[in-house]
Amino acid sequence: xxxxxxxxxxxxxxxxxxxxxxxxxKGKDGYEAASTQMTKEVAAACEAILEAGHEVVxxxxxxxxxxxxxxxxxxxxxxxxxWACHPGSMMAGISDRYAGALYIGYHSxxxxxxxPLAHTMNYDKLVSLEINGRLxxxxxxxxxxxxxxxxxxxxxxxxxxxxxxxxxEIPGIVTMATKECKGTSTFNLHPRESLDLIKAAVAEALxxxxxxxxxxxSLELIVKLKKHxxxxxxxxxxxxxxxxxxxxxxxxxxxxxxNVMFGAILG
Length: 267
Prior knowledge:
Rossmann fold, 5-stranded antiparallel sheet, about 25% strand
């Protein structure tokens, strides 16, 4: 068996038990427990990859990008911390040398009612994002970017809403829901059960990777923003069109172009 290398992009809002915004912010109530569970869920995925005889690189993709406790990951796992000022954002560093991309702790998108922490990229500025008429999540953006680099997306864990949406976007992807969400509440698996199920599901995903998702020739974005002044400022970016006082549109021809545009208008 050839040794392969896999790429993990990790977020926090979809991790077991994480329910309130304070738990996602360093220094606030509940953050330490949340970041520890995030680390454990990433470690469970890494264990499955290493035990299958492969290598793994982890990209910390939440807020400061300094949440995962490296010493709690299995020996040999490389961890990317901090932001790279790169259009890949949560996927910075991915390339065609990776056999597959995995997503840990992901969450439902802005504009959905499937998580109390539903958002896309920037909670303070973005109300919702549609791509080609469909509500888009961070998983949507990141799996498209991975596909542009020639990498299939093979596994995702997080809330039940994002797992359902991932299956709709990439039939065949393996998913593992850590929780279901109702209003501002979450109904969670036991934290250790999540670890066992993530490890088993990743082992399954490694056996039959999903195909690389299709990338449309054009990506038609409708971006609803929280304030009209953000929409007005977005018009400074070439190609951005105003739809209404708080909504803009943009036509991109690659996932990287989408990420560059968002980096400019959302900061």
